Structure to design on (75 residues):
């Protein structure tokens, strides 16, 4: 095997993981910050999650919803 052929194969092998990872789609992340108690905030998220699933999104696969609650402390 010639030196140029070997270096070409080596360069291709080095680039392989980068090209494979670049082709994976990004998953959108939706953030929600509730200002009430966690129970009330979760009750508000139920219709949102139903609407998102009605549009064809699957939580954890095609969309990520990050919900946080302040627990009523807005200071």
């Amino acid at each position: 095997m010639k030196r140029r052929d070997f270096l070409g194969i080596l360069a291709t092998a080095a680039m392989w993981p980068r090209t494979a990872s670049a082709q994976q789609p990004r998953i959108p992340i939706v953030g929600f910050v509730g200002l009430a108690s966690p129970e009330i905030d979760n009750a508000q998220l139920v219709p949102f999650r139903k609407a998102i699933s009605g549009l064809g999104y699957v939580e954890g696969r095609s969309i990520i919803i990050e919900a946080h609650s302040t627990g009523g402390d807005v200071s």
